């Protein structure tokens, strides 16, 4: 299944017209596409999102103490499920930067397998975004250092409870790491940095034409090339869902 993701910063800029446009595009697509609200770390934003027609949302309480994250996620999860929406949540916290939100390394923490038991049972979420050493944005020059042993344990828990495993920070991960993560149960990868970089590089290209329409078309083609590559890497190319 393909997913259109709208981040809080994008929602702030585009508002309801942006959401309506994305929903319309998804409905007219030739393959199944869902429209997802990503990293909902504001209760007010999420309460508004519940009324906008999204298919799913992410409750991001990763900045909160564990008990508060549970309470926050449970509350939104209950409301979302009453509207037939799927719910993703994050346990642990990724370092890095995404959409102007930066989490320093010292604030990041891995997903605790023991807390995950309680978190899943209490919140009734459908998908868990895990923190196993993955980061938002660019990985350091030394490359990614993922705790695949932790991923294996988390998938063992999630699979028993009918919860999907999500990996944010998939930009920059090698083919070998992606394939191993798929074997260990990851069913959704979030890619943002590489797609955005392709767009920005196209805008600043010396060969970029001056007419706005042509510049935008070139930038979109650059993004599409990266997305197609990622779909092949994730094993979803040529599949309806």
UniProtKB/TrEMBL annotation:
InterPro entries the record matches: Aldolase_TIM, Class_II_FBP_aldolase, FBA_II
Lineage: superkingdom: Eukaryota
Name of the molecule in the record: Fructose-bisphosphate aldolase
Organism: Datura stramonium
């Amino acid at each position: 299944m393909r997913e259109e993701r709208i981040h809080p910063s994008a929602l702030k800029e585009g508002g309801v017209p942006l959401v309506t446009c994305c929903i319309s595009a998804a409905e007219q697509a030739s393959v199944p596409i869902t429209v997802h609200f990503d990293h909902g770390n504001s209760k007010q934003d999420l309460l508004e999102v519940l009324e906008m027609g999204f298919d799913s949302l992410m409750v991001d309480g990763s900045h909160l103490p564990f008990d508060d994250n549970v309470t926050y996620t449970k509350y939104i999860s209950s409301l979302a499920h009453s509207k037939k929406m799927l719910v993703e949540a994050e346990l642990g916290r990724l370092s890095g930067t995404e959409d102007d939100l930066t989490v320093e390394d010292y604030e990041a923490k891995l997903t605790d397998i023991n807390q995950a038991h309680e978190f899943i049972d209490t919140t009734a979420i459908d998908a868990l975004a895990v923190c196993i050493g993955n980061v938002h944005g660019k990985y350091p020059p030394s490359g990614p250092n993922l705790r695949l042993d932790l991923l294996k344990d988390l998938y063992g828990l999630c699979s028993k409870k009918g919860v999907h495993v999500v990996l944010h920070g998939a930009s920059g991960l090698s083919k070998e790491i992606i394939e191993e993560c798929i074997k260990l149960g990851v069913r959704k990868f979030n890619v943002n940095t590489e797609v955005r970089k392709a767009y920005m590089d196209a805008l600043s290209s010396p060969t970029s034409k001056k007419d706005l329409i042509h510049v935008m078309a070139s930038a979109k083609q650059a993004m599409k090339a990266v997305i197609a590559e990622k779909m092949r890497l994730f094993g979803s190319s040529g599949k309806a869902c």
